[in-house]
Amino acid sequence: MQIEHNRRSMVMLIEMDEKVNLSTQTEANVALVILIYKFNVNTEEVDQFLRAWAAGAAIMKRQPGYISAQLHRGAADSCVFINYAVWKCTAKYKRAVNNPEFQSCLEKLPASTLASLHLLRKVAVPGSVSNENNDNTIEMSCSFVDGNYHKSSREEIV
């Protein structure tokens, strides 16, 4: 993948998994894939990073297979950013990331940028909970894993 070998960009890529690199992951045929990017940026280059990320995100949103992306920043003015992106499959992600227009956005990332990327597939955990409504209820997850259906339920917090 070009993102690993982009010589014009000063971004340093750090593999998240020492056994399976990103290039190997993109060769796997995985449907509905989650891409996690972890970025570390120097404080004085945060604005430059955000501009470059926004430009790249605008390009990716137009690519076939793109579903969604969300950038998160660490609390208390942290300079750690996490991008959580969802793609229909690894093949479409690979085509999109190698798009020359997107590659040109990588050159705009600050020189201090350290990036770690990893492709993930969803593994449902029965019994996981959320309270997105911030009320006195919890919502149990609903998933279909290994042929078993796990039902959702909503219960009051006691």
What does this entry show, briefly?
By secondary structure, the protein is of the alpha+beta class. The chain is 25% helix and 34% strand.
Structure description:
This protein has five helices and ten strands; from the N terminus they run αβαβαββααββββββ. The chain folds into two domains: 2-121, Alpha-Beta Plaits (2-Layer Sandwich); 124-158, no CATH class. The termini are far apart. α3 runs antiparallel to α5. With 158 residues, the protein is an alpha+beta fold.
Question: Main traits of this protein?
Answer:
single chain, 158 residues, alpha+beta, Alpha-Beta Plaits, 2 domains, 5-stranded mixed sheet, 3-stranded antiparallel sheet, 5 helices, 34% strand, globular, disordered N terminus
Give the SSE map.
Elements lengths: L1 H4 L6 E2 L8 H6 L3 E10 L5 H15 L5 E8 L6 E10 H8 L2 H7 L7 E8 L7 E2 L6 E4 L2 E3 L2 E3 L3 E3 L2
Helix pairs in contact: 3-5
